[in-house]
Design goal:
This protein has 14 helices and 10 strands. The chain has helices at residues 23-34, 52-61, 67-79, 91-104, 122-131, 135-142, 187-193, 222-226, 255-287, 311-317, 324-332, 343-347, 351-367, 369-375; strands at residues 11-15, 46-50, 148-155, 161-167, 173-175, 178-182, 203-205, 208-211, 231-235, 301-305. Strands 1, 2, 3, 4, 5, 6, 7, 8, 9 and 10 form a 10-stranded mixed β-sheet that branches. Helix 1 links the parallel strand 1 and strand 2 (46-50).
Amino acid sequence: MRSPKKTDKKIAVLLTGGGARAAYQVGVLKALAQSMPRTSPLPFEIICGTSAGALNSAGIACYASCLHLAVRKVEYIWKNFSTEMVYKSSFSGVYGHILANMLRSFQAQYLNQPPASLLNNSPLRKLLAEVLDLKRIDNNLHQNYLDAISVTVSSYSTGKSVSFYQANDAKPWQRSKREGVASPISLDLLMASSAIPMVFPSVRVKHHYYGDGSIHQLSPLSPAIHLGADKIFVIGVEQPRLAQPLGYEPHFPGMSVVAGHLLDSVFSDTLHSDIERLERVNRTVSLLPAREKHKELRRIDHLTINPTVNFNEVADHYYEDMPLAIKLLLRTLGVKKHSPSSLTSYLLFERTYTQKLIELGVEDGLKRLDEMRAFLELD
């Protein structure tokens, strides 16, 4: 059972999306685990994940009773990754999939066609089915190692951001363009949340088609707040911008740069604005007289960890490790080695790259270890 804390505050961890970049999150959690006793449970009661962060969330939720074990299980997968484990990357797998999409476009509209996409990520479904025992989440909830877990998806049917949650005690919520729905975390939800738009196919859950949870997610902090969090620990994957050299003349952005810019915006921009909104609400709450304070206006603290190294530069070092068929496909979009596009850093699911991101996460985590431990009330 979870050991008692100094306060009754509920702490949530939020793992954001970012394709292969999500390996960095495992490094930060590993740094935290190294500072804790080997039998310690997770230091947060609420887990919220979006896109690739949803896969990490499910992984650690399955082993919530022991942080060390949870991190080791997830780290093992990321450290032994290959592109073929996530999406088909052979010539027949890539171009056969594209050709099949083209041929289906000539068929009658009334036929129920499978969703089209640039890449076929069916290997990822097989991998998740092998490594995740999602029934363990329910056991950890019953034993109070967890209070709640949520996975956010985007509905292509309604345009809403939908957070499916599994919790001990939480009520559904409805807000403008977003809602919370009680539901066991399933393989379909994880596949939907990590379905990068246009790159991977949407997933049908019940009567709706869903895609990457970062789309339409106007308030990434919302699920954690609705599930009762008093403090939110955010592990993001937003990279620092590279400084432009003196006299630099910008070139016309090609398709690859625009596509990478679009993904950067999807995965990080809304988080910044939501944190700013949270800080404004906190300032407002601090100004209210005690008798006027209400539970729905409680103060919520946050701590955000983001990488200190530019992932595009890191991905350049491992560009040649990418399968040839994928390199040729990306080249048609203008993506090549040393390209300013960030597409490579999202799609490079090779162990050399993901291991490096884990190392960077550990380094950043150790630099801010005292800050993390204080925030998580571990001292």
